[in-house]
Structures are given as C-alpha cells and as structure tokens.
Amino acid sequence: MAEPERTPDGRFVVIDGRRWRATDPEIPEETAATLRSLLMRARRDVGAARRDQDTEAERDARSRVHLAKVALGERGTPWWEQDSAERRRRWQQGLDALS
To answer: pLDDT digit string (tens) for 81-98?
Structure first.
C-alpha cells in the first residue's frame, strides 16, 4: 500500500482530499505498530457492539479508539507542540492503558 500524501510540513496526511493529523514520526516503529493494532481491535469492537446494540460495550470500545489515537499523536495536544519527553510519555501511557 502506498504512503498517503503528506502536507509539506509533514504534520498531516491527505486522504481523499481531507487532511488528517499524521501519526507522531518519533514513535518507534514497533510501538506504532502495536498501537495501530490496538486501534484496529478497538474499531472492530465498536462495530461488533453496534451490531449487538450494546451501548456499554460501544462506549468502552470508543474510549479505547480515542486512547489509541491520542497515543499515536493523532488526537490531543499536537505532537509538534510537545518535547521528546512529553511525546514518549504520551505513547507509553497509551500503551499502558490499552494493554
């Protein structure tokens, strides 16, 4: 799969004409892969909960989606506004909360 187009500053990816915040490039690849896996699991759980009409499970799964997105730097304080220690703390807290 081809890499998505990025804005010149590298802070955003452009997909189907929409700008989305890019994953923090400082996250080690193995850690980013783990966080992406946890994100996809949470997204699948959102779908399953919706199909089952289980609002509590859906709320839990959506919370995990949010935690993963924050850990990846795609939500919350922009990663380019954080120093290296804050960035590392952000993704480690996300891993700890999701694992």
So the answer is: 999 999 999 999 999 999
